[in-house]
Structure formats: structure tokens, C-alpha cells
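Pasting as-is:
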Amino acid sequence: MAVVLQIDNRSITAEEILPLLAGYQMMPRFVQEILIDQAIASIECTPEENAQATEHFQTQNEIASEEDRQAWLGRYGMNSQQLDSLATRELRIDKFKQKVWGQKVESYFLSRKNQLDKVIYSLVRTQDVGIAQEIYFRVLEGEQTFAELARTYSQGPEAQTDGLIGPVELSVPHPVLAQLLSLSQPGQISAPTRVGEWLVLVRLEKFIPAQLDDPMRRRLLDECFNTWLQEQLSKLQPLAINTLAPSAP
């Protein structure tokens, strides 16, 4: 068996590579990177983009001279062609995302908007029904502020912030709480509501609608790409397991 890698006193053969990758839990990442390379194989960059990406990569990795470049190649076992490909890889991935999902981002955004909208809200949680009712009526009557009551009675970490939470996306709070907030108007306090083991009182302070700006567009493209990638990996996983399984005696 041919030795393909020498590490200190150990010689590693070609037949050992895949079992070693599996044993070190590196197989999923290995397969993932191959899938990505296949997907972006037809994606090209302009000479200017190649030059900018290479310059950026070398700056990030403190490659300031040809000597630094050769040392870096030696450290990672690469050749110059592999380094140049690596330097443009993220750009080619971004182009792939834009090519496949760029025209679908707006509709995807609309389907996700209810989860992407943000809220700032005040919360009091307690396990005592009597205290929950008392807090509710005190706020309604204006006897005490929500902040004072949260600081005194709330049994969660929000007591340290006078009950104030956010801004957070509506996908973050408990679904029951998110539903209350989505139906509320700023300044409106909910009656005590059961959420798991707690009775909660919540008041919407501010509603911040999600916007399809450049950061949001990049985020949604990333989501689409990662969903696609996980789907591809899930299709290949049984095959990879079968391939790596030891032969029956």
C-alpha cells in the first residue's frame, strides 16, 4: 500500500485516509466542502476580482512576501493554484448564492417577515396567580410603573433590566408570547397569560418591522444556501455511512 502522508513516525496509506476522516469526525465537513466546490465549479471571477480577492486573502493571512507565501503553502500542504482558488472561494460562493436564489429573496423575505420583525417589550413573570393579578391591576390603575413592578416581582433575569427586553426578532420569544406581541399595540399590556410554568404579563413597547436591506438580503441568501447544503448532505449521509462501514468477515 502506497504511503501518501508521513506524520512524524507514522506512515499513512491511501486506504487509511477515509477511515481516519470518519474517526476524527471530519467526514461531514470534508463532504460538505466537496459539494460546495462542485456547486461553484462553473462560477467565474473577473481578473480584477481575482486580484482583489488574492490581495485581501494575503493581507488577512499576513502573507507579505514570496517567502511568506511559500511558508504558508508548506504549512497547509497546498500549491499556488490551490491558494489562488481558495482566495476567491468565498466570492464564488456569494455569486452562486446570488445566481440561484437572488431572484427569490423578496418572496422568501415576505414568507419569513413575521419572524424577522423585531420588538422591544416589557415582561413580568411569576408563578403566583394572586401576584400576577395584582400587578396587572396596579399597572392599569397607574399605581406603579411596569418597570417598578418588574424589578420587584419578576422572577426572571428581566428583573435586572426593569422588565425591558429587546430588540429581539419575533422568532425568539416563546410562541405564545410572540403571538401576544404580534397582536398588541405599543403600550398595550396583556392580562396574565400562562406560558409554560409561568404566568406572564407583557407590554409591547416598540414594533420594528423588518426591512429587506443589504444585510437582510445577505442573511436570507445565506439561509437559502445553508438549507440547500443541509439537504444535499442528508441525501448523501446514508451512502457515506455504507461506504465507510467495515466489510463483513
